[in-house]
Amino acid sequence: MARSPSSSAQKAREALAARLKEAMRRAGLDGTRVAHAAGWHPSKSSRILTATTLPSVSDIETWCRLCGVPDAVEDLVAQMFAADEMYSVWKRRWRGGMATDQATYGPQFRRHRRIKVYSASVVPGFLQTFAYAQALLSTIARFNGVPDHADDAAAARLEWVQLVHEPGRTFAFLIEESVLHYQVGAPEDMADQLVHLLTAMTWPAVSVGVIPMTAQRPDMWVQETFSLFDDARANVELLTAEINITTPSEVDGYTKAFTELSKLAVYGAQARTLVGRAFSSLE
């Protein structure tokens, strides 16, 4: 795996690489000698030491054995998994099926009370209908070359979507107006999704803002889709991977972006007008 685009994820990898390097130096070894003893190509140890490649469990076990620190394996493996979770490639996540992956979100989301989502491309998952989610997940599966189990995945998604109706949580959603016009699924499915969005705007714990295409953006621009959980963790969705960010300075950046984007959005009757306009365009 290439270097992570998230500085939080990359710092976690570099911290792990530093510990492996320290163990190697204390054992009087270098990368070339470790690779030779392990039966690896020399470039492999180089990639591990430069945090370009995240080592596997067996890599760490071999490294610690050669450096004479077998007791460090458990701690280093835990650190490896923590770094790996920060940058999660979709294809690897979906090996067990998209439905299984969707089911993991519920327990994660349930731990948080204030959830904020900005989306520039699709209706946020918490506001999706079954048909919309099914069509979207099917498209994603085909693009990534993974088994298309969109029916089961959409059903699993709708289970955690019910969190918006549980007391004690608040949700703030920001979407670009273009999201209302990107047709996902059949026209009738898109129409149902827009009607559902209008309904969601009436839910007491939910705020939905729509950023008009005509909005002036002197201080903010269109961002990648991201979510904030209690302003303590940011989740960023890329084309091929998901990044989980917990470094306070980086989370603050996304919190600031959400605040600035909120100022560009319209709410209430104005937002409903934009949704209605998109609905009319389907006809």
TrEMBL record:
CDD domains: HTH_XRE
The species this protein was found in: Yinghuangia aomiensis
Protein name: Helix-turn-helix transcriptional regulator
Any coiled-coil regions, as ranges: none
Matching InterPro entries: Cro/C1-type_HTH, DUF5753, Lambda_DNA-bd_dom_sf
Domain of life, per lineage: Bacteria
Domain HTH cro/C1-type: 19-74
Matching Pfam families: DUF5753, HTH_31
